[in-house]
Request: fold
Amino acid sequence: MGDRVINWKQNLNVLWFGTFVAGIGFSSISPFIALFIGQLGDYNATQTSIYSGMAFAAPFLVKMIVSPLWGILADKYGRKPMLLRASLGMAIVIGAMSLVTSAWQLIVLRLLQGVFSGFISNANALVAAETPKSHVGHASGKLATGNVSGTLIGPMIGGLIADTFGYRYTFLITGLAMMVAFILSIFFVHENFKPVPHEKGEKQPHFLSGIPTKQILFGMFLTTLFIQATNNSISPILSLYVKQLDPTSTNIALTAGIIQAINGVAMISVAPFFGRLGDKIGSHQILKFGLVFSMGVFFLTTFVQNVWQLGALRFLIGISDAALLPTVQAILAKYSPHDRISQVFSWNQSFQAAGNVTGPMIGSAVVLIGGYRGVFIATTILAGINLFLVRKNIKSIETDKN
Reply:
């Protein structure tokens, strides 16, 4: 038993680093993607805008499609092989982005980055499968901070590397960090994987078919989509909103990056607490609190008058994220059948990617109608819809003895 305790904690620490770097890999390009593409060719403003949008969305669109396939293979052959495939693939592809000479080369490599997704979902599945049930909430909470914090802090890290060394070094350094995650996973991640035996010729069950808790699981998928959409709705307009609040500032990009990163700092700090609390009082209670809290914070953000107020409220959003995303992971871990746990987490990653794409689209569209402040009103409404869906879909959790 002692060895198992050591192993699950070791797995958790190594995979936290890997998911953190993977999150950075998907987001570090965002502060300067348009500027970098502008250096790759003689493109006009319209072409640069189109290519930037394509490069930004490419990995998320592909990840949304291919994630379930990697989940099926993980449940068949093990989660660790999928972790190694994803980390090595991303290390090579992201590193290769430092060598591109045209916008289309960058877009193709970003598409390949989406193909080599699956590190995060399989890290979640492996931790859920290998962690003692009494610690699943805490472990899932800590692991979830890796990906989300990497995604949120990534723009600031990418911007700092780009300003200090140049745009191409952002890709090179991120690729090297992902290679470190690959090497650590080889030697320090352990899995007691035993595939569930199937009769020869037996067909793979359809998505969620035959799972008694499928309503809960699908409800969590939708919750993940809405959380990501609300979190990312501000992304396209954050720097412009900061400029509106502080028009005399000469460090708009850095200020916007810091404000975005504050969210991740708050989440890293608070998520383990909510994980332990969820193990005691029930994950569904933490989930409802997080949604109500986020609604209040998003609504208050509508009335900010300066960047300090915006930063403080984004910190509070990080607290709500600490209550939401890790709790979803814990609920998925608890209510997923062991033989399909990787598929469940992979589908959740597909919904997460969908939220990453739809959130910025919603934010950009709302700005045209209601201005920057209108984005936060729309986000409050989305969080309210999410709360309604959660209350409807997790009634069975409330009657379950945690």
User: Anything to note?
Assistant: The radius of gyration is 20 Å. The CA atoms of residues 263 and 314 lie 6 Å apart. The chain has two domains: 1-190, 210-401. Residues 1-5 have pLDDT under 50 and may be disordered.
